[in-house]
Write a structure and sequence with these properties.
Layout lengths: L1 H30 L22 E9 L5 E10 L4 E5 L6 H8 L7 E6 L2 E2 L5 H6 L1 E4 L10 H6 L7 H10 L3 H5 L18 H15 L3 E5 L7 H15 L3 E5 L11 E6 L2 E6 L1 H7 L2 H9 L4
Parallel strand pairs: 3-8, 3-9, 6-7, 7-8
Antiparallel strand pairs: 1-2, 1-4, 4-5, 9-10
Helix pairs in contact: 5-7, 7-8
The structure holds adenosine-5'-triphosphate.
Length: about 290
């Protein structure tokens, strides 16, 4: 009997591992929306690595239900700059990010990278050049080191350590008895939303993409966590073309340009102080979110 028990027990373990891996995949796809249905053109080229200029050129877009959700969005992110998109829920912020990642093609207009439409590039090379820091990061049931190294399979211990440092995780990791080898996920240490996002930033640092999409978490973070995220984002965005989908306006203060999207249209754009002085929609959003004095 015992001879049977051991292999069955092992099979149970393997089954749980496989189930977990599938659950992670399912969550990952939900997170990244639907899998691509777009086919590369035969003459498509590889997008060269490095920061690129991104232009949303008169973008109109409808999902499969045919209702247009973006109505002629015009938005340029010069190489290495950061543009933040703000606006109420359903305005179309995430849709812009999905189009840049080419999960869908616009119904009219084109997204251009270095002047060429996305369709000129192989999707694999486009996605290899875009780092996504999602709202809700999927962690594998493994060590912190493994979860960071996911950004670059085969990364050395030094590279992982350096990425953790740049993502402002070093202080947090130092306090853990097993440091980078601490188990996280469902069967390990539970991390806060802010800590998980910084792991995603560390992954992105290892991936070293020229472009970055940062989807800010909607859940409120404590002020220490929020500051750590902001500092990590500032560092990682410095030399990259960055699109920030912002929910809390504290994230956007330093952006090169802030774009206010309402019902799929840009209604205001500029830097934080100019938009505040304008006294329009941005100022209204800011006053709604401003912490009480
Ligand atoms: P939030 O701040 O709540 O994340 P958002 O500004 O990112 O909102 P989007 O998610 O881009 O808004 O949605 C824009 C519009 O597109 C909304 O009206 C939404 O209902 C619709 N939409 C989003 N995803 C789909 C989809 N897969 N199919 C059909 N409509 C969708």
């Amino acid at each position: 009997m015992i001879q049977l028990f051991v292999p069955l027990n092992f099979l149970g373990f393997v089954y749980r591992e496989i189930k977990q891996a599938l659950a992670n995949m399912a969550r990952m796809f939900a997170l990244l929306d639907e899998p691509a249905r777009i086919v590369d053109k035969p003459q498509a080229q590889d997008l060269p690595a490095g920061p690129a200029t991104v232009l949303f050129d008169n973008i109109h877009f409808a999902y499969r239900d045919g209702r247009e959700v973006l109505h002629g969005v015009e938005l340029s992110i010069p190489a290495g700059h950061t543009v933040a998109v703000v606006g109420s829920s359903g305005a179309g912020k995430s849709t812009l990010a999905r189009l840049l990642f080419r999960f869908y093609d616009p119904t009219h207009g084109a997204i251009r990278i270095n002047g060429e439409p996305l369709s000129a590039y192989r999707q694999q090379s486009l996605r290899a050049n875009i780092g996504v820091v999602p709202q809700d990061t999927v962690l594998f049931n493994d060590t912190i080191a493994y979860n960071i190294a996911y950004g670059k399979p085969g990364a050395s211990a030094e590279e992982i350590q350096q990425a953790a440092k740049l993502a402002h995780l070093a202080g947090f990791i130092e306090q853990l008895p097993d440091g980078l080898n601490t188990q996280v996920g469902e069967r390990g240490l539970k991390l806060s939303g802010g800590e998980k996002q910084r792991i995603a930033i560390a992954r992105t640092i290892l991936k070293n993409p020229g472009m970055l999409i940062f989807d800010e978490a909607t859940a409120s973070l404590d002020s220490v966590s929020e500051r750590a995220i902001l500092n990590a984002l500032k560092d990682v965005a410095q030399s990259r073309t960055t699109l920030v989908i912002a929910h809390r306006l504290s994230t956007v203060i330093d952006a090169d340009e802030i774009v206010v999207l309402e019902d799929g249209r840009i209604v205001e754009r500029g830097r934080h102080s100019a938009l505040l002085a304008l006294g329009g929609r941005y100022a209204e959003l800011w006053n709604l979110q401003k912490p009480a004095d």
